[in-house]
Amino acid sequence: MRLISLLIGRIELAAEDGFTMIVAIATMVIVMSLSVAAFAAINGDLPLTANDSLQKQAYAAAQAGVQSYLFALDQDSEYWTQCVPSPLPGAINLAGSTANTGKVPGSSNETYAIELLPAAGQAQYTQCSKTNPVSSMIQAAGNGAGTLRIRSTGFAGTVTRTLVASLREQSFLDYAWFTNYETSDPIVQVANAYLSSNPQDNTIEPPDLCALNPSIGCGSNYDAAIAGAAAQCGQYRYPPPAGSTSTVGYDRYAAAFYESYMCDQISFITADHINGPFHTNDQAQLCGTPTFGRTPADSVEFGYSPGYVQGCSGNPIIGGSLIAPASILKPPPSNASLKSLATLTFTGTTCISLSPNSTSGVSVAQPNATYPSCFSSGIPWTAYSYPSNGVLYVKNGACSLTYDVDNPSYTGNTGCGTVYVQGSDGPPLTIAAENDIVIDGNLTYSGSSSLVGLIANNFVRVYHPVDRQPLQTNSAACSTSSSNGPDPLSNGVTIDAMLLSLQHSFIVDQYNCGNGNLGTLTVTGGIAQNFRGPVGTDSNGQVSTGYAKSYTYDDRLRYEEPPHFIDPVQGSWSVQRQNECTPNSSNPC
Q: How far is CA 431 from the centre of its chain?
């Protein structure tokens, strides 16, 4: 029995060996099948993975095209007016073509092509026109007003992706009103401190007034007071942001700028209307119910939140879209870049009268020893053509004069590069002065193509003489004087222009002189200044002396500029809007 049992056991073991072999082989077959399936699946995904990579590369290439065009605009703000530049167009094409391409830096197979798209909302142009770049490229109305559009197509292998970007330039041309500081210029601060001192503090009197009637110590502390005003009043009203470790540049009312003299506080009053976009880097003061903005399309921007404080009762009328705090926009130091660019240049005080005739519409006179001012009887005038590139520049000769708020001189000092201007403009024109610009009569447009820019390194001033120059005896304040002729601006003044004072202010000469209200100062265009310049005085929100303000934005400035106006400004272009689209027969993007 034992032998039989052993034999049966061996037979059973042999049977199990065969079964194990079958299981092993079956398992190997299954594993191999799964491996083949997995390999097939992975192999099938390889094209998808490669395509995904190409899609990303093509999108990056399209973005590179947009940035490439922005870079070109930052190098030359008028680059877009050239349409397809020659002789080296690079990646630039007219709409409908991608023939010219550029290579993405650092890539071997990624390229891009840029197309200039015609302005939306018009049917006259199907592509960029060098003879009329504004009408063909810049959208004139609607949400995209002032923008130009480009289409950037990125290529990677066989994949393409397309972006449409709307670009716009930020500059002082964006605003009917711009100030860096909502307080007076240091020169005005010291003059007001002198007028308000009792007894009169002759030590801070302007030196040129001291020369008229010198007294002991006269003007000895003037430079120190100016330096103090520049340091203390050249700050923003508001305190430093939360968490700041420095108070430098903030809270101008924390201390006196010299001895007990505090920085001026200027108010917008009920009679003031800013009919357009508004920007100050500062915080404004209000008295009454001034108006800011016309429609929600006008940004009303303050550098701090809340954007304004009340100097007396009342609240502003905000007709635009309130933004507070807003980004800071700083004025440049000078207009020197226009000096070499100008095709019509003069040295020393220059009187200009404009008329529409393009070949003889710039009449010029220059004061001298025989004719000491622009208002001298018999001063000779010479007719010039409007400058070929639209830029007229007036340089300094021998000039040591600084603006005297209490006693502005319209006679002598002929070496200073000061412009006196009035008239009716014809072709677009930019007038830049190394010293001041004085508007001595109405300055208006003769037609829809007229466009004027005035850029002064120092002050842009409105001419306002008085019966007698004040303070000649260091006694009588100018507020006791009455306005007199020749003053063509005693019943209001109209200025059609973009005004820019780079270092100082837009101001009315002797704004606190005269018998009451001079009417309304009407500006159609825009005003940009470093410090806020007073144009009058008020009592409880009503005009006492000088002018009420009515400033209306020239909406053409959203997309058009006076000739080379932004050259000294260096406005930056940015993407306002960007979206991806797929061009086809029904959707050309």
A: 18
The span from the CA of 554 to the CA of 498, in Å, is 9
C-beta of residue 142 within 8 angstroms of C-beta of residue 577: no
Find all residues with CB under 8 Å of 506, minimum gap 6, and list them: 459, 460, 461, 499, 527, 529, 533, 535
Instruction: In whole angstroms, give the CA distance from residue 124 to residue 284.
Output: 44
Q: Which residue has the tokens 């002065």?
A: 433
In sequence order, what are the beta bridge partners of 206?
none
Tokens at 142, concatenated: 């609607």
Can you say how many angstroms the Cα of residue 314 is from the centroid of all Cα atoms in its chain? 30
Residue 424 has pLDDT above 80, yes or no: yes
Q: What is the pLDDT of residue 1?
A: 47
Q: Is the pLDDT of residue 36 over 80?
A: no
Q: How many Cβ atoms are within 10 Å of 210's Cβ, its own excluded?
A: 18
Phi-psi region of 570 (alpha: psi -120 to 50; beta: other; left: phi over 0): left
pLDDT at 285 over 90: yes
Residue 522 makes CB contacts below 8 A (sequence gap 6+) with: 492, 493, 494, 495, 550, 551, 552
Going by pLDDT thresholds of 50, 70 and 90, the confidence category of residue 479 is: very low
Q: Above 70 in pLDDT, residue 510? A: yes
- Specify burial of residue 289 (Cβ count, 10 A radius: 0-12, 13-18, 19+): middle
Neighbour count for residue 240 (Cβ, 10 Å): 14
Q: Are 173 and 526 in contact (CB under 8 A)?
A: yes
Q: Write the DSSP string, 150-186.
A: EEEEEEETTEEEEEEEEEEEESGGG-SEEEEESS--H
| Average pLDDT, integer, range 292-321 | 91
Place of tokens 């003044």: 493
Q: Is the pLDDT of residue 16 over 60?
A: no
Q: Report the distance separating Cα 99 and Cα 233, nearest Å.
A: 57
pLDDT of res. 181: 96
User: How far is Cα 408 from Cα 225, in angstroms, rounded to an integer?
Assistant: 20
What is the distance of C-alpha 259 from the center of its chain? 36
Q: Are strands 159-170 and 273-275 parallel, antiparallel or unpaired?
A: unpaired
CA distance linking residue 533 with residue 266, whole number of Å: 9
Where helices occur in 335-383 by DSSP H, the ranges are 337-341
DSSP E strands, 348-483: 350-354, 362-365, 382-384, 391-395, 419-425, 429-433, 437-445, 452-456, 460-462
347: pLDDT strictly greater than 80: yes
115, 98 in Cβ contact below 8 A?
yes
